[in-house]
Amino acid sequence: MTHPYRLVPITPESHGVDLDIVYATDRNLTGKPIYKAAHCLLLEPAEAALRRAVEIARASGYTLRIFDAYRPPQAQQVLWDFLPDPTYVADVKRGSHHSRGAALDLTLLDAEGNVLEMGTGFDAMTIESEHFHPGLPEHVQRNRLQLIGVMHAAGFTHIKSEWWHYELPGAMALPLIDNEESGPLRLM
After folding, report:
1. Which residue in 47, 130, 162, 167 is the catalytic one?
2. What family is this (predicted)?
C-alpha cells in the first residue's frame, strides 16, 4: 500500500532542534545500538506539528532535544523482544505510533543548552516516568508541565507512562512504514 505521506528528515539546521538519537547508541534500555546511523524522520503532519513545537519552545527560551522519531517496525521488534511490556513498548502486532512516523521522544534544553531535569532519564521504564507521578520535586513537575504544554499546544498528545513520548492524535489509523521503504534508517 502506498503511504499517503512521506517521511521528512529532521536536522538541527532545518528545524532548529538538538538531536541525540539514543537508539543509534548503547545508551538505551537494551544497552546496545539498534540503528546503524542516527537519522531523525517524521511523517509530514508530525513534522508540521514539530515545527510549531519548536517555535513555541523557542518563545519560552527552550530548545527541543529529540531522542527518537520514526522507528522501523524491525526496531520496534527489538525493543519488544527486550521488554515485552505494553505499558512501555508497543506490541509489534498492534504497531507503534513511532513506526507510523507520527511520534517522537524528546526533552527540553534551557537557553544555555542544559537538559531540564525530568526526574528520570529517557527510556526509564518505571512508574516515576509517568507524566504526573506524585512525589517528584516541584522543579521536575514544572519542567514536565513545560514540555507537555509545548507539545500539546503544537498538536501532539501524550501517553501516561512516558514523560518523553508525544504523538499525533489518531495516528493509529495510518499504516505502518516498513524499514525497506523508509530510506536511510537501517538497523544494526
Report:
1. 162
2. Belongs to the peptidase M15D family.
C-alpha cell at 113: 543548552
Active site residue 138: no
d(CA 145, CA 118): 10
Q: Which domains does the chain have, with CATH numbers?
A: 7-181 (3.30.1380.10)
Instruction: Report the distance separating Cα 9 and Cα 86, nearest Å.
Output: 28
How buried is 148 (Cβ within 10 angstroms: 0-12 exposed, 13-18 middle, 19+ buried)?
A: middle
DSSP class of residue 57 equals H
The per-residue pLDDT for range 41-55, each reduced to its tens digit, is 999 999 999 999 999
Asked if residue 98 belongs to a known ligand binding site, the reply is: yes
pTM score above 0.85: yes
